Amino acid sequence: MTEIIMQTTKYSQLALLLTSCSLITLPALATTSEQDAFFDSIAAHCGKAFEGKVTAGNSADSAFSGKKLIMHVRECSETELKVPFHVGDDHSRTWVITKTQYGLHLAHDHRHKDGSEDKVTMYGGMTADMGSAEQQSFPVDAYSINNFRDNGLDVSVTNVWHMYIQPEEFTYRLTRDQRDFRVDFDLTKPVALPPAPWGT
Question: Which positions make up the signal peptide (predicted)?
Fold first, then answer.
């Protein structure tokens, strides 16, 4: 009887140890209620595409002039959203919004037409505060700063990306010194789905 109790105790201790290890290796997500609401508001449009227009910009944004701008809330899970941003026939860009243990993270997945990664890709940043259900901001992170500098884009090392969502409109915005680029998308009028983004 004593031997059975000792074995049971050992198994309980082992289970406790394994549980503790799993908690260490798999930390809980730590998004705030505001960030969750923001994430869910975008996810509510999953499977739909919307047309936008540039509402702020300068000569640095000439690549967007006269092009049809389409965002497509294409892939949605409980922890990640993938939103391709199509600029005319350029299907190289996808916004990736991910829930992490530190908050929401925004990455820009850039691909070539053959699906290979661009040298400047997966740049973005982590939310620095709770934001709100309607707005989240993503200051540039260390990986992105290094990537920009490695590719001669020192002007981008102070980037802050912002996303806003209202019932009728979604906005993508980039700000830094002497640059304020903004695209507003009409959420009241879904449009035909664009082609798959490059690399998928």
Answer: 1-30
> Rg of the Cα trace of the chain?
21
Which residues have CB under 8 Å from 12's CB, separation 6+? none
Instruction: Report how far residue 186's alpha carbon sits from residue 92's, in angstroms, rounded to the nearest whole number.
Output: 22
Q: Which residue has the tokens 């965002």?
A: 71
Give the tens place of pLDDT for each residue, 139-192.
999 999 999 999 999 999 999 999 999 999 999 999 999 899 999 999 999 999
Are the C-beta atoms of residues 132 and 38 closer than 8 Å to each other? yes
pLDDT at 10: 45
User: CB 118: neighbour CB atoms within 10 A?
Assistant: 17
Phi, psi of 102 (to 5 degrees): -110, -5
d(CA 94, CA 76): 13
Terminal C-alpha separation, the chain:
60
pTM (2 d.p.): 0.85
The CATH superfamily label for domain 29-191 reads Calycin beta-barrel core domain (2.40.128.20)
Q: What phi and psi, each to the nearest 5 degrees, are found at residue 123?
A: -80, 160
Diameter over CA atoms, the chain: 82
Nearest to 146 by CA among 138, 157, 133: 157
